[in-house]
From TrEMBL:
Reactions listed under catalytic activity: ATP + protein L-histidine = ADP + protein N-phospho-L-histidine
Protein name: histidine kinase
NCBIfam families: sensory_box
Entry annotated with the keyword Membrane: yes
Stretches assigned to the Histidine kinase domain: 564-791
Gene Ontology molecular functions: ATP binding; phosphorelay sensor kinase activity
The keyword Phosphoprotein belongs to this UniProt entry's keyword annotation: yes
Keywords attached to this entry: ATP-binding, Kinase, Membrane, Nucleotide-binding, Phosphoprotein, Transferase, Transmembrane, Transmembrane helix, Two-component regulatory system
Region described as Disordered: spans on this chain: 120-142
Sequence intervals crossing the membrane: 12-33
Organism of this sequence: Marinimicrococcus flavescens
């Protein structure tokens, strides 16, 4: 067995070399076949591309000719082509059109039998020689819309004599659709022939333009039989290509769309494969040399195989461990485990040799291996800064060991940089998150609403107060443009102010009534590089409070003025009334004078009543407040109100069970309710005349005013609300603002004193209560009296 052992590797080596030789031959055959196919495919592409170019060139040439003939046909008098009188005119027309057509020898008009009638060369076509006329035979019929093409011939007249020409024409139809003749253009083929002659298609190449039936029109080389092609619009095949030399060619053809023409290109097969055959000879020589070298060097290769295998195995093992380390080291997320793992990997790669890893920051791992003679390798960052040190006992024994150690150091340095980068990112993310949370907390803690807008007017941030004030959840605002979320604000002052702030880079402040929220907002907008920071607050209650305060101050001032005037008038009226009564008594024997005195007394009494109302508004009229049963008071007042209102108005009562008693002057309260009922009746009276109609509602309910809803005009506590509501015409805001002013009235002259509502107002305020009014044009008016709850319940009279 030991004697046969060497034969095994020898036979294996021979088999391997035989297999290599077979592979070389197989590669040679495969490459030869692939080279052949590549050469053929290149030829097909070359022929196809050239055919496509020729198709485009021919299409442009004949499309222009077809267009010119199409434009000329309508100008010909088809019904009178044989009229001699028209010959000069038609000659001039054809001559003029010929001059504008390049490569056109002549324009001719033939009759239905093919006889020449008119020519662009002469006004007397009969002067043409018969030989020339024979060249003008009508071309074969073509499809509708296509040119009629004849066979190539030689021109025998004019400056084009001796040149190849092609007759191309269009039918001339009479009004019944019958053929009346043919319009023919003789096209000089010289330019086309020169173009085709200039094409490089090889010694055996053929290129040409032919009719759809295969008749050659232009060909290079000149001559040849009609080409027979498949009926398909385009294609490629191996054939003679219309040549009579018997050579095989790779033929590509294209039929022109819309015209009875085709172009074809034939590349000689020998020309196409010449390069491949040269390459085949060269590669065959190389394969033979390679086989000789392979067989000759087999012995040398055999001796080197074992040594290389051993070195390769050791190198592969080291690379495999290095690859494994490349996956293990990135798993470490901190410097300490990275150093420990790196030291262990080094000792595995270099068995029996101690390793030490020291990282910046004092991190160490591994045994003491930094004695003299130890290999040291710095760990450096991408910017060159030192990250640590690797120490390996003993110097590297080969370049391979040095390369492995260097690669391992690079992997460790990259991972150490990644660890530091991740730690820095984590710190930065934590700091950024803390900053965002702090900023968000500041915005959420603000009493003002806050929104941030980018330059596209999209919401980027809204605090909770903004969400509450705008009545929209944050997810319906963030990312949406302001002017789309609130389109009703476009065109309002806030729209112009925001644009001005961004354009000028200056803060703006404004107050405006938001139409959809129906709230007054105070807005401050500050532009910044990211857009616009907007702070806003609801100032509706503040404005309403200020308006109420101004109204109260105005009413207080008017009350003081009215009270003073009424007091002075009352003093004067006392004297007038006394003297009027005295005169009336002493003038009893003179009836006429006594009547005058009585009239003066009545007028003074009415003036006294007016003063009494003014004193009531000014809250100077003495009151006798006492606890009143509201339900009983309304029961007693209802008949009077029904009589006052009239039959056309229905009186309704809405009373809450368990009404509290009120503390008020009974007479003044009844007078106030009657005044309000009369005002309601007048509001329900048509302006055009007629009886009043509608509904007057008396409402009574207990009401508790808390600290926040009481306001400055009334103290918090328990009240009874007495309301009178009508279904009349209502009032607008301007009228509502003045209804409590003395002598202000909307009634016609002589119909009202303007003191009814002021008296009610004064009575309510003097009774430590309040009067409120609500009205809308067309929807009636509601006046509410808030009177304080009485401390004790009175006994209801039987």
């Amino acid at each position: 067995m030991p004697a046969d052992a060497p034969r095994g590797p020898g036979r294996l080596f021979v088999a391997v070399n035989g297999l290599l030789a077979a592979m070389i031959l197989a590669v040679f055959v495969v490459q030869a076949w692939q080279g052949h196919e590549t050469a053929m495919e290149s030829g097909r592409r070359e022929a196809g591309n050239l055919a496509a170019s020729l198709e485009q060139h021919a299409a442009q040439t004949f499309a222009g000719l077809a267009t010119a003939l199409d434009e000329l046909v309508p100008l010909l008098p088809v019904e009178r082509l044989d009229d001699p009188a028209l010959a000069p005119a038609l000659h001039g027309l054809l001559e003029e059109r010929e001059q504008g057509l390049e490569d056109v020898v002549a324009l001719l008009v033939l009759d239905a039998e093919g006889r020449l009638l008119h020519s662009s060369h002469t006004s007397r076509p009969e002067d043409l020689r018969p030989a020339s006329a024979a060249a003008l035979a009508a071309p074969p019929p073509g499809s509708s819309g296509q040119l009629l093409l004849g066979s190539p011939s030689i021109a025998r007249f004019g400056i084009h004599a001796g040149r190849p020409v092609l007759a191309a024409g269009e039918r001339l139809l009479d009004r019944d659709g019958g053929r009346a003749g043919t319009l023919v253009a003789l096209l000089d083929l010289t330019r086309l022939q020169n173009f085709y002659d200039a094409l490089e298609v090889g010694p055996q190449g053929v290129v040409g333009l032919a009719r759809a039936d295969g008749m050659p029109l232009v060909r290079q080389p000149v001559g040849g039989a009609p080409i027979l092609l498949p009926p398909a619009a385009r294609g490629t095949f191996l054939g003679a290509g219309g040549s009579e030399d018997g050579g095989i060619r790779l033929v590509a053809y294209r039929r022109l769309p819309g015209q009875p023409l085709l172009v074809h290109v034939g590349l000689g097969l020998d020309d196409l494969l010449a390069g491949w055959r040269r390459q085949l000879r060269s590669e065959g020589t190389m394969a033979a040399v390679l086989l000789i070298v392979l067989l000759g060097g087999a012995a040398l290769i055999k001796r080197a195989i074992d040594a290389r295998q051993r070195a390769a195995q050791a190198h592969s093992a080291r690379l495999a461990r290095l690859a494994a380390a490349s996956g293990e080291l990135p798993a470490a997320r901190a410097a300490e485990p990275l150093a420990a793992r790196l030291a262990a990997v080094i000792e595995e790669l270099f068995p029996g040799r101690a390793a030490r890893v020291r990282l910046a920051g004092g991190v160490q791992a591994g045994a003491a291996a930094e004695a003299d003679g130890a290999a040291r390798l710095m760990l450096r960052a991408a910017d060159g800064s030192q990250l640590g040190l690797i120490a390996l006992e003993g110097a590297p024994r080969s370049a391979d060991e040095q390369a492995v150690l260097t690669q391992l150091a690079r992997i460790a340095a990259v991972q150490l940089e990644n660890i530091r980068l991740l730690e820095a990112r984590a710190r930065a993310a934590a700091e950024a998150e803390a900053a965002r949370a702090e900023i968000a907390g500041i915005f959420e803690a603000m009493s003002d609403a806050f929104c941030s807008l980018d330059h596209g007017w999209r919401f980027t941030h809204c605090n909770r107060r903004a969400e509450q004030l705008l009545g929209r959840p944050v997810d319906r605002l963030i990312g949406h443009p302001l002017w789309e979320a609130f389109p009703e604000t476009v065109g309002l002052p806030v729209h112009a102010a925001f644009h001005r702030a961004l354009e000028e880079g200056r803060p703006v402040e404004l107050e405006f009534l938001h139409p959809s929220l129906e709230r007054w907002l105070e807005i401050r907008a500050f532009p910044h590089k990211g857009g616009l920071a907007v702070y806003f607050r609801d100032i509706t209650e503040r404005l309403e409070t200020e308006a109420q305060l101004r109204q109260a101050q105005k009413m207080e001032a008017m009350g003081q003025l009215t009270g003073g005037v009424a007091h002075d008038l009352n003093n004067l009226l006392t004297v007038i009334l006394g003297n009027a009564e005295l005169l009336a008594e002493r003038l009893g024997h003179e009836p006429a004078l006594q009547r005058c005195a009585s009239l003066g007394l009545e007028a003074a009494q009415r003036a006294a009543d007016l003063v009494d109302r003014l004193l009531a508004f000014a809250r100077r009229k003495p009151l006798a407040p006492r606890p009143l049963d509201v339900a009983a008071l309304l029961d007693g007042l209802a008949p009077l109100l029904e009589h006052t209102l009239g039959a056309g108005i229905r009186l309704e009562r809405v009373e809450e069970p368990g009404l509290w008693p009120v503390l008020a002057d009974r007479g003044q309260l009844e007078n106030a309710l009657v005044n309000l009922a009369v005002n309601g009746r007048d509001a329900m009276t048509p302006k055009a005349g007629g009886p009043a109609t509608g509904t007057l509602t008396l409402c009574a309910a207990n009401k508790r005013l808390e600290e926040g809803e009481a306001g400055e005009e009334i103290e918090p506590g328990c009240y009874v609300e007495l309301a009178v509501a009508d279904t009349g015409s209502g009032m607008d805001r301007e009228v509502l603002a003045r209804v409590f002013e003395p002598f202000f009235t909307t009634k016609p002259p002589g119909k009202g004193s303007g003191l009814g509502l002021p008296m009610v107002y004064g009575f309510a305020r003097q009774s430590r209560g309040l009067v409120r009014i609500a009205s809308h044009p067309g929807h009636g008016t509601k006046v509410s009296l808030l009177l304080p709850k009485a401390p004790a319940v009175p006994r209801r009279d039987k």
